[in-house]
Amino acid sequence: MPHPGPRLTVIDTDPGIDDAIGILLALASRDFEIAGITTVAGNIGIETTTRNAGRLLAFAGREDIPVLQGASAPLSRPGPEPLNLHGRDGIGGVALPHPTQKPGSQDAVEWMEELLLAQPAGAVDVFALGPLTNIARLILEKPDAAKRIGRIIAMGGAVHEHGNVGPRSEFNLWADPEAASAVVASGLPLVLIPLDVTRRVRATREFIAALGASGKPLAAMVGSLIDSYFESAANRESRPLHDPCVMLYALAPELFRIETLRLSVDTGSVEGAGALTIDELGSPVDVALGVDGAAVLDLLARRLTQER
């Protein structure tokens, strides 16, 4: 069967160590044609997330891909404090070159609108790796463009798992619950990759060593990023590789177990903000609730070490 060709894709992101891993995986995969990277505040502030996107593209030699700066704060509430686990620079202190190109002059949402209106309906996918502020703004402010999205694959939420910023809340949805609610309720094709799956995808030090020994610069860099994502030298496994699961799902959906659930997003108190509830009055969303962790890690390694 002939290869159908790469999917035109926008990566909306707040790099972030695991975001960086996902971005490098996407750049290494011939299945995706990256139209641009749009940035959002989340793991760290907007100036740093935007700079980190440019640094990753400079490292990969892909300065042809534009970076567009997006939302610096949530839709209607104060932004979260930066996450300490990503370090002061957002990417664990891993050495990357300075950006060689300035971010585009357009706002991220305006740029996405132009891209979507210029392409056939359904031709552009969005990989959402951070708070959903930019995507929600597109839906609320540019509905004619938003409805042309092929699908959104978003890392976020916790269904049956305990949250990571509250009893039931995961960081990306908690950081801007109003935006998450707008995206979930939009009716757009949405696949949600929650903590129920991402916590099953963790790398070992042997995995890192194999990436470093491959001779492939992208693989070695991902190894360095994962190495910075261990809680301590004594840990045998890394923290969960949350955001790369978006790209891994797009590459091999058969490795994930998907259920369609009707969901609503809590937009109330700080403690419960962003929590997902299975609700018969909620919106139908395809949710990943299972994963073959070993197989997706093998896929990650193969894609990073193959010839592009």
TrEMBL record:
Keyword vocabulary terms for this entry: Glycosidase, Hydrolase
UniProt-recorded Gene Ontology molecular function terms: purine nucleosidase activity
GO biological process, one term: purine nucleoside catabolic process
GO CC terms of this entry: cytosol
EC number(s) from the headed UniProt entry: 3.2.-.-, 3.2.2.1
Pfam families named in the record: IU_nuc_hydro
Highest rank taxon of the organism: Bacteria
Enzyme type, top EC level: hydrolase
InterPro entries assigned to the protein according to its UniProt record, in alphabetical order: Inosine/uridine_hydrolase_dom (IPR001910), IUNH (IPR023186), Ribo_hydro-like (IPR036452)
Residue ranges of every copy of the Inosine/uridine-preferring nucleoside hydrolase domain listed in the record: 10-297
Entries under PANTHER family matching the protein: INOSINE-URIDINE PREFERRING NUCLEOSIDE HYDROLASE (PTHR12304), URIDINE NUCLEOSIDASE (PTHR12304:SF4)
Protein name: Purine nucleosidase/pyrimidine-specific ribonucleoside hydrolase
